[in-house]
Write a sequence for this structure.
């Protein structure tokens, strides 16, 4: 009885917190303006990308270093179709469809690779996409880049427009990830992360599960990439396929807690704010600091910040936290 009441209490707290958070996000552009709205839009976008990366990187343990490859495909496809007269929403759907087709062809052979080989392959894939965009001068504009149609809205209206569009997309991504984590697909991906060979022995079609996860993440990242391109109004091969974006997304997911739904949200918000602070005031230390954050997270909190909350009875004390650090130091022989 007490257990049921505890679960109900947690559910009420979760729903209340979610409602208040969404309500705050809805009214945010009317409270703040200009730079703060654009910053919030960027944070929301990175939260979505972090959750998308988490589908394979967190749930299945397949570290994708080339998520930006499909972000770039989405950006360019959206730009091309908008210049042909299509609406932004139809353009990003077409972009997502193109990425889905590409992922269906490339996913199975790449996903047969394991560990570092898979990561290297995804990293190389992003460079291949970048070179293709760089050489399709008649379609993508080559190295000169591609300009997207300007909306013609006022700055205030435009900031709110992109904020709300990115917010809706991020909520959709979050709901998909929540549903996935509680589905047979989510359980299958978690089984792959724990022991892929054992999962195969139990009859789980690991190739199919990984391919589905890869395809979903490719589609969603392209949709976000398309909206991102429209927000920028201009893209080129370097900005559309910026490998630093992939690294930043990985850091966010791992700091928050890869393999959980809430972890990428926490990491996305925290790292975005820290990154913006460093970029504004200590630009020369920006990249180095983020790299250090990832290293320290892997050593001291390999399961991310969420691990502290999931096992709070055991770890939320200086003594147990110190013990956890010592165990990880011993594990990595430091």
């Amino acid at each position: 009885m007490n257990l049921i009441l505890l679960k109900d209490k947690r559910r009420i707290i979760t729903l209340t917190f979610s409602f208040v958070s969404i309500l705050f996000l809805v009214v945010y552009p009317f409270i703040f303006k200009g730079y703060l709205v654009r910053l919030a839009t960027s944070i929301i976008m990175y939260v979505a990308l972090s959750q998308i990366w988490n589908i394979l990187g967190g749930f299945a343990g397949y570290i994708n270093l080339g998520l930006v490859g499909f972000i770039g495909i989405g950006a360019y496809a959206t730009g091309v179709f908008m210049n042909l007269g299509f609406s932004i929403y139809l353009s990003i759907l077409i972009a997502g469809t193109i990425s889905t087709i590409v992922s269906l062809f490339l996913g199975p052979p790449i996903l047969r690779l394991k560990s570092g080989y898979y990561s290297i392959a995804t990293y190389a894939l992003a460079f291949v996409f970048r070179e293709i965009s760089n050489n399709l001068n008649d379609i993508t504009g080559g190295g000169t880049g591609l300009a997207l149609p300007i909306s013609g809205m006022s700055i205030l209206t435009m900031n709110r427009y992109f904020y709300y569009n990115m917010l809706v997309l991020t909520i959709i991504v979050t709901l998909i990830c929540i549903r996935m984590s509680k589905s047979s697909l989510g359980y299958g991906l978690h089984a792959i992360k724990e022991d892929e060979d054992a999962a195969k022995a139990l009859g789980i079609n690991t190739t199919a599960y990984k391919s589905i996860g890869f395809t979903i993440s490719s589609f969603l990242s392209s949709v976000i990439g398309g909206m991102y391109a429209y927000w920028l109004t201009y893209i080129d091969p370097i900005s559309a396929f910026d490998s630093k974006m992939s690294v930043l997304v990985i850091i966010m997911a791992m700091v928050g807690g890869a393999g959980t739904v809430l972890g990428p949200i926490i990491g996305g918000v925290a790292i975005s704010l820290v990154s913006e602070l460093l970029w504004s005031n200590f630009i020369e230390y920006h990249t180095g600091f983020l790299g250090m954050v990832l290293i320290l997270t892997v050593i001291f909190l390999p399961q991310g910040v969420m691990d502290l909350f999931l096992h709070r009875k055991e770890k939320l004390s200086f003594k147990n936290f110190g013990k956890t650090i010592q165990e990880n130091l011993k594990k990595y022989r430091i």
DSSP finds 16 helices and two strands in the chain.
